[in-house]
Amino acid sequence: MARLLPTITRAEAEAYSGALADVLCWFQGFVAADRDAPVPRSLDTLRELNITMKAVVRESDERATRHLDRMVSEACRENPDHERIQAAADCAKAELFPDESRAPRAVPF
């Protein structure tokens, strides 16, 4: 089966994921209140879509980090003042990923 790759921004992916999480949480409240209520099978699909959106954001962050790390590594090899380059890269990562708990770790290449 052919895979579709929609073009969305990171902010859109996060917004969609947040909206899906809200709907799923909201519905879980109804299920908790009435355990005999029928549960639509589409909830599993929404859950999977939310997991996919989170994975898209994570993979995008990891690709961006690998690219930045590669660029810094090359610049450091060519420049004796590599500590300043590394510091600038660390600042760039902090700006890209202000919440350090979500920042992907550097991946060796």
Detailed description of the structure:
The chain has 109 residues and is mainly α. It is built from 3 helices and no strands.
* Helix-strand string: HHH
Unreliable residue stretches: none
Please summarize the sheet with the most strands.
none
How many distinct beta strands?
0
Strand content: under 5%
Summarize the topology:
Layout: H1 10-33, H2 42-78, H3 82-96
Characteristic terms for this protein:
single chain, elongated, 109 residues, mainly alpha
In short:
The protein is an all-alpha fold and 109 residues long. It has helices at residues 10-33, 42-78, 82-96. Helices cover 70% and strands 0% of the residues.
